[in-house]
Amino acid sequence: MSLVTLAGVGVRFGAQTVLHDVDFHIERGEIVTIVGPNGSGKSTLLRVLIGAQRPSAGRVTPAPGLRVGYVPQKLHIDPTLPLTVRRFLDLPRRIPDAVAAEALAQAGAGELGLRQMADLSGGQFQRVLLARAILSRPDLLILDEPTQGLDQPGSAAFYRRIAEVRAELGCAVLMVSHELHVVMAASDRVICLNGHVCCAGHPEQVASAPEYRALFGTGTQGALALYRHEHAHSHDHDHPNPHTHEAAE
Amino acid sequence: MTGFLDDFLIRATLAGIGVALAAAPLGCFIVWRRMAYFGDATAHAAILGVAMALAFNLSIMLGTLVMALAMAMAVSTLSGRGRAVDTLLGVMSHSALAAGLVAVSLLQGVRIDLSAYLFGDILAVGRLDLAVIWGGVALVLGLVWARWSALLTATLSPDLATAAGIDPRREQLILTLALAVVVAVAIKVVGALLIAALLVIPAAAARVFSATPEGMALRASAIGAGSALVGMGAAWRFDTPAGPSIVCVAAAVFAASALVDLARRAA
Predict the structure, then answer these.
(1) Any idea what the CATH number is for the domain that residue A188 is in?
(2) Which pLDDT tens digit goes with each residue over A114-158?
(3) Chain B residues within an 8 Å CB radius of A146
(4) What Å distances lie between residue A190 and A133, A173, B38, B180, B234, CA to CA?
(5) Which regions span the lipid bilayer (chain B) (predicted)?
(6) How far is B149 from B174, CA to CA, in rounded Å?
(7) What is the per-residue pLDDT across B22-58, written as a single tens digit (0 to 9) for each?
């Protein structure tokens, strides 16, 4: 059975509908990437999956005993809070030193145990978050724009790291990403989200789908020249009001 | 032991140390979560609680506990809805204080020394007071001890906490409850105006010397208790008010810690 299945999930904040009619599933061991313009509900979907956001419609069905590792989009640690990397891994449950050392090594943060969290660089910080997420040997690793704030080589290295972690742990990986060129190379499946699932499938399949092109542009530049588009595309699902998206970066 | 507790100075000192011990670890969370003003608002509401207790002939501690809890819950709920928390706290904190002062003055036939509630009246701590204070201290320390990891995780990131099966709203509620208890037992020791100082100053002073959250909480407790001890001694010797003297000693420790920090950065 699937690790998690979402059926007809919708999320509303007051009068605003962030997600509607989302059907989604993820299988053991696959890498799935969610792409979509800003405000398309990507982070909200992840928060539904980790249980931080209750859906206002639909059903979320996790596999029995599912272990989820979560790397949040951003984590601000107040400088008034003294916290070593090693102690951070002990939250909320203390873990043996050997387990911590192994997770840090797998995440490429082996040297950082004694450092203060507040002193880490962006890349180091992300690797420590990854180490924490894989401590519990998760079946499903969820990452919300894990390379935000990293430079190009930094984020390429981080995605390689994630592929290695998947190979070692055999976990499924679900992530949100803005970096489509990386996504296309590294994912088994891509889900294009814009309030609902516009299209989904193998990266090549999605890249040639009209819905995807409507969101992200066409041709070979599609991967990069994506961030300005008219969202008046037509497909099976009707959008109540066509509107323009503009995404940052 | 009975003879020992007969001395009002001993009772006062024990009360001061107890409140400082409970306030310090809680103060660490207030500092980490940037809730200093939250402590202020809760403490100021206690004056309204004093007025209520006098009007309905209840125990002062019960009145302050109820009002502090109501205020803390109100602020905690409203701030969760994305309002301008800073302004909101400023409005509620000072409104509660003003309303409390007006309400006390309107009470017929009650003659009380208001400054005892504003600045504390630690030398008037009786045996029963002492028992209630240490009961409250034990409750707060027990709560914080039992929930330490969950509180810390929720403080770092509500989403990380949720992903680990911790309900961040429940942890917030526990902090709120603990804060109301500290306010209720501390009002006699340092008074409503200075409770927030006892929460925040020892924690801020301990930051410089600490590498882990636990270390910071322990050092804050030590600084708080030491300030209570030295402050009481100074108050006796120089005939100064006890609550403010305790806070002054804590502030001096903070100033020293800031100098140490400065010297370290320069080195």
Answers:
(1) 3.40.50.300
(2) 999 988 988 899 899 999 999 989 999 999 988 887 888 888 888
(3) none
(4) 22, 12, 45, 50, 70
(5) 12-32, 44-75, 87-107, 128-148, 177-204, 216-236, 242-263
(6) 13
(7) 999 999 999 998 888 888 889 999 999 988 888 888 8
ipTM of the complex: 0.82
Q: Say yes or no: A77 contacts chain B, CB-CB below 8 A.
A: yes
Q: What is the pTM of this model?
A: 0.83
Q: Does A75 lie at the interface with B, CB-CB under 8 angstroms?
A: yes
Interchain CB contact of B158 with A (< 8 Å): yes
Task: Provide the domain limits for residue A37.
Answer: 1-67+176-220
User: Which residues of chain A are modeled with pLDDT < 50?
Assistant: 219-249
The dihedral formed by the CA atoms of A228, A234, A236 and A242, expressed in degrees to the nearest 10: 70
CB contact under 8 A, B156 and A75: yes
Instruction: Pick the residue of B34, B147, B156 with the most A CBs within 10 A to test the interface with A by mutation.
Output: B156
B34 to chain A: which residues are within 8 Å by CB? Answer: 78
- The candidate with the shortest Cα–Cα distance to A179, out of A205, A214, A211, A151, is A151
Q: Which of B31, B153, B162 sits opposite A80 (nearest CB)?
A: B31
- The residue-averaged pLDDT of B71-84 equals 74
Please list the alpha-helical segments (H only) found in chain B: 2-6, 8-32, 36-55, 60-79, 85-106, 114-119, 127-146, 148-156, 158-163, 168-186, 195-207, 213-238, 242-266
Residues in Cβ contact with B94 at an 8 Å cutoff, skipping those fewer than 6 apart: B44
CATH T-level topology, domain B8-193: ABC transporter involved in vitamin B12 uptake, BtuC (1.10.3470)
Tell me which chain B residues have a C-beta less than 8 angstroms from the C-beta of A78: 31-34
